[in-house]
Design a protein that fits this description.
It is a single chain. By secondary structure, this protein is an alpha+beta fold. It contains 2 helices and 6 strands; from the N terminus they run E-E-E-H-E-H-E-E. The chain is elongated and about 40 Å long. It comes from Mola mola (Ocean sunfish). GO terms for molecular function: carbohydrate binding.
Amino acid sequence: MRGSLNLPWRATDAGVISVQAALYGRADKETCSEGRHPSQLGNTECSLDGTVDLVRQSCNGKNSCTIRVGNTMFGDPCRGTYKYCADTAGFKQCLQICSR
């Protein structure tokens, strides 16, 4: 990734953020695939171990938080693969936001 992306996350109706899962990498060929060469989408077993812990440390228990997403923060789990960040915590601003 040549830069990074700041992702603002907000709490659900419960009032605070509680991260259940998070991914930085690539788990399928469809998400964030527009305009990408197929060679950048082939590795669908790309994920950085510990992503959920990093996101939890930054966000759990808060009303909102901003996470800097990119190889500079998370590291590069799979060189040459077009990555994205995704969560299943009820606040999905992170989904479909793409980075290299």
